Amino acid sequence: MTHTHDHTPITVPDGVPGYYEIMETAMRELLAEKGIIHPAEIRRQIEVLDSRGPQLGAKVVARAWIDPEFRQRLLANGRAACEELGITFYDDTGLIVLENTEKVHNLIVCTLCSCYPRPVLGLPPDWYKQKPYRARAVREPRGVLAEFGTVISPEVEIRVSDSTSQLRYLVLPLRPAGTEGWTEEELAALVTRDAMIGVSTIEAQERKVR
Amino acid sequence: MKTAPFPEIVTADGEKPVFKAGDTVFISTRYPVGHYRVPRYIRGKRCVIEAVIEPCGLNNEEEGFGRNAGQKRHYYRVAIPLADLWPGYAGSAADGLRIEVYETWLEGTK
Questions:
Q1: Chain A CB within 8 Å of residue B97 CB
Q2: Interface predicted TM-score (ipTM)
Q3: Is CATH 3.30.930.10 the right assignment for the domain spanning A52-209?
């Protein structure tokens, strides 16, 4: 079957499995066979991962926007403040929350692999794990941001945080103007995954009157 | 400074951070075999320590090879201007990188 669109082909593993796929299956089966890991534990871990998503990060951000004391605790110790909301850190990573201001815009990347604040944002998007983003985010962040439609003024400092080991990062975006008096739920609905990675900002939007 | 309640306490090697926020240090230029959590593009670069990360972390590079299990040292959040990393960097001079580096990869300046 040939395909003439110009989008990136969606790769669905078919036919002969690749080298790493075989290695992963062999390792997993061997660990199960030797009783080191039970298949139910793997399934359970997938449930843990699936229960995490950007809606958790959005709640953290919205709470920080409306509660100055929570914001202070969040910036002092990201993990402890998230734990207050019941978000657990099953992978035992620490969390630094990076505050965007009128003078500083933060961006996160993992140049070595795909470290990502999974406890609060879930699984990373594919582009976050692929080499073009990983290589270019630290080399030409402004160019990368522009491709996401985010143009940052030259007056604003860009800080790129590269995750390498035991810490993960979450961007606290600027609260959009015109959202005074909004409820925490309304604010959370504005917060996007991309804004918490730092590839976009949150634009002011019209309040949905309910 | 407050006097420590137990001045007789002796700390083990690695318990206390060697560097402090504001120190200027260099990232080692080493290329050991294996998977090290120090990207090559920062090796040999000068950086400023922004924060000492608490608590100490396991030396995962040694641990990964089954050596020195349990040895702990500090990670540091360090800052490097992007213009120092990339010749001809096109953005603002204030743009910078922040990255966590393990103590064994940092060298003090004399």
A1: yes
A2: 0.91
A3: no
